[in-house]
Amino acid sequence: MIGPPSLSSLPPPISLLLPVFVIWELVILAFLVFSAVSLYFKRLELAFILVCVCLLLFVCMKITKQVRIARKKKRRMLLPLSM
């Protein structure tokens, strides 16, 4: 017998971290554009620094996302099987 979907099968609401990730992606894009502009003006040191900061932000964003997914998975595993 097929019944209404349970609460666990419904999609989760939009995360509060989604706007933070969007802002981080915009900052990364801005750093990439600024590094291209600084390369155009032959500022190699500034371009290198901006690319390094961009990569650091990208890695931090990926680590934060993985930690959040791991916490969600751990929380899900702690629920009793009857739920």
Provide structural commentary.
- The chain contains 2 helices and no strands.
- The model has no long low-confidence stretch (mean pLDDT 78).
- The protein has a domain of 58 residues.
- The chain is an all-alpha fold.
- Keywords: Membrane, Transmembrane, Transmembrane helix.
Q: Which tags fit this structure?
A:
83 residues, mainly alpha, 2 helices
Short summary:
The protein is mainly α and 83 residues long. The protein is built from two helices and no strands.
Euclidean distance between termini CA atoms: 18 Å
Q: Describe the sheet with the most strands.
A: none
User: What is the count of β-strands?
Assistant: 0
Structural class: mainly alpha
Keywords: Membrane, Transmembrane, Transmembrane helix
SSE layout:
Elements: H1 18-40, H2 44-78
